[in-house]
Amino acid sequence: MERKDLTIKTLSLLLLLLPFCICAKSHATTNESIDKLVGTNKKTWIYQRFEKFMGNDKCKKGESWTIYREGHIVVKKCNGDVEDFTNKDWSIEQRTPIDVVMKVGGVEYFLLFPPIKPGSSWQSMILRRKAQSIDLPTQDMIFYYEVD
Questions:
Q1: What percent of the chain has pLDDT over 70?
Q2: How many domains, in total, are found in the chain?
Q3: Beta carbons of 122 and 144 less than 8 angstroms apart
Q4: What pTM was estimated for this model as a whole?
């Protein structure tokens, strides 16, 4: 009877800890995050799809970030009727076993890559800026990249 109780307790403990092991394994390391972020050289992530006025090249709205492995970003943004380009530096740091932080031009974001939905050809990336105060709540910037 004692052996059966020990086996049941051991199995119960394993079942209790299993979700934690799965969650810890599903978080990306710094190198895995960089590979998802830029691939072999660069990736262009869409924050807001570009739209242009019919009959001319003036833009209505849109924003994309081309992120380069070398540590810089070219932000293309519709500003008024023209496309503006801004350069920013970026870096990545593993803060905790599950938290990867991306610093973009001096601003820190938690970097998240939700799983690709079955049947989808789009990978999403979330740059999450934690709440700084009641006046500045948590903000998510959600980007999309078409998977090859």
A1: 80
A2: 1
A3: yes
A4: 0.75
